[in-house]
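Budget justification, computational time. The allocation requested in the original proposal was used primarily to generate structure tokens for proteins on the priority list. As evidence of use, we reproduce two of the resulting records. The first is shown immediately below.
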Amino acid sequence: MKIAILVAGFPPRAVAGAEIATLNIATELAKRGHEVHVVTTGDKELKGDKKGDFYTHYIQFGVAPKTSLLGAISYAIKAFAQIRRINPDIVHAQRFYREGLAAFLAKLLNKKRYCIWCHGSDVYLPWRFKGLALKLFLGQADAVIALTQDMRGKIRQTCHRDASVIPNGIDLRRFEQLSCRSKVKSAPNGVKTLLFVGRLHRIKGVAYLIEAMTTIIKRNPKVKLLLVGDGEERQSLENLVIKLGLTKYVTFIGKVPNEKVPQYIAASDVFVLPSLSEGFGIVLLEAMACGLPIVATNVGGIPEIVQDGENGFLVEPENPVEIAERVLTLLENDDLRRRISQNNLEKAKNYSWELVVHKLEKVYLEVLK
């Protein structure tokens, strides 16, 4: 099968959830004997080539920013031109805005069948022309994929279109050599580490985690919080840490290469994701693969990954008191952490890329029948 995968960004320059997923999907599909072409954006010095077992094709933008309507149209037209040259059996759009428009053009003008895999922000967050794009691009798609049942329900509600549910996956081999949490760690001087990994953006709710630290350290001063990631909210969060007198307890690590993230996870004791909205959260799977107990908000697709009391705890968004209580419950109970750690190590096996791509392959074959 010849497959064209459309994604606006791609590693190593873009390392968000959909971009990392695309790299793993392309790699696994190629392993299965398919001819895979990734159509993405890049600078002038980047030329189309073969990365490992699959091909990459880069689109240059000129003056139109990728996030503007003009940028989306520019990407779609150039991506459509690449699709015509590739002549794939099926077009796979990661997200339904820029990529969905390109896939729609390929069907309209070249009779190419396409599927769209929604990844969260395109479904949950408001943006201009969202309603039109949903109804048009998803309505004409030969298959629609959602990451979670919650996302599937949102798609049904907004454009009356059903979707298959396939979660994101993780490369479990990245975690096999790490000192994962199969046993409760004995930290130096008894200090326990809380970890957040993600963009420092308002929607991630990091301010509420920082506020929770004021309660946590009153009961257990031997706790530190590491924030891995960067973003537009960093300065205001640093100011909040100073204001609350938490400079001894909170460390901003900044952006780190994706391949180093598992090292931070394996060296921590509890993973916290205080998002106000979240489509899926690959980082939750990574925490599970290291056996970390999780405290996360009860929003979006998170409850389909974290079962309260089984492999972590769910809290309400914007609630630093509840975050603090759940974190302290985990830190003060070694047996509970040990049980949740083992549950997560087992649960992570359900999200291998081999299993995920096997399900995706079935969708492709159904479309091409």
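The second record produced under the same allocation is shown here.
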Amino acid sequence: MKLYGRFVVLVALAVTTSLLVGCSRHDNNERYILVTVNSKLPYWQTASAGLAKAAAQYGVKMDVRGPETYDTQAEVKEFRDAMALKPAGILVSVADSGLMQAPINDAIEAGIPVITIDADAPASKRLFFIGTNNLQAGRLGGQRVLDKLHGKGNIVFYTMPQTNMDERLKGYRDVFADHPNLKIVEVFNIKGDAGNAFDRTQHWLTDKSAEHIDAFVCLEASSGKDVAEAVRRNNATDRLIVAMDTDDATLNLVKSGLIDSTVAQKPYTMAFYGLKQLDDIHHYPVDLKKDFSTDSFSPFPRFVDTGTSLVDKVNVDLYLQGRQEAQSK
């Protein structure tokens, strides 16, 4: 019996050791890098928290790189600098898909897995895209504008030249297509500086020769609070503001009623899930040079939709509470 008991203990130890070895596939020298622009925006701080959470779970290293302003050439340099570190994988939010296509392709050729998040480079050899269905996000916001303006009014958009924002604008246009009394007066490029959105809103509210604007719509994360400040200063709170994303300032302005609503994305989820996918590819390698877009048996999806929702005064407290809970951890 004693011999049998020892045998059972040895078997149990062997199984436990095997399980522990199986769970320790991650090397703490593994590094996963997220490259973006405007890296100090609250949006990217939220994404960084998701990246850090996944890295902590796996016991690997993570890093966020990118210019603090909207500088597309600087983002390309940061991406190539990240490649030089030979990381286990790179996530990238693509500011300029034309500029970033070649660096992404070079990374793939060098055996470094690349997944795009938030903003895509669909013509590149990136493995797949994780982010928002931006066309649907635009349609969600467009329906809100349609309902609030009762199908009639002049609208100004604030945007930047990125594929994700182009798709959002198309979503709005889709909703407006059957409503000719909804007029897009201007699509304004803020050039990565929310202060430009403030100045342009001031123009529309103070220039006596300018058309009356009924709604201001932000297709990117930073301009909502600046548009709201211009509206507040000019006592034009009857104007509709629809923002993008859920930083603290935007959510509090929705709660106050100055911003009517905002379209929420999930940057935390994009980065969290993205690192886990890169880790899986690193440990179970595939032929990165293969064209998976034409492969019916591809191990990768083409697109992972992380979801969108409309935030207004009815549900804004849920989002504020969620941010507070995340920040307290």
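A brief technical remark on that second record: The domain at 27-131+267-292 is CATH 3.40.50.2300 (Rossmann fold).
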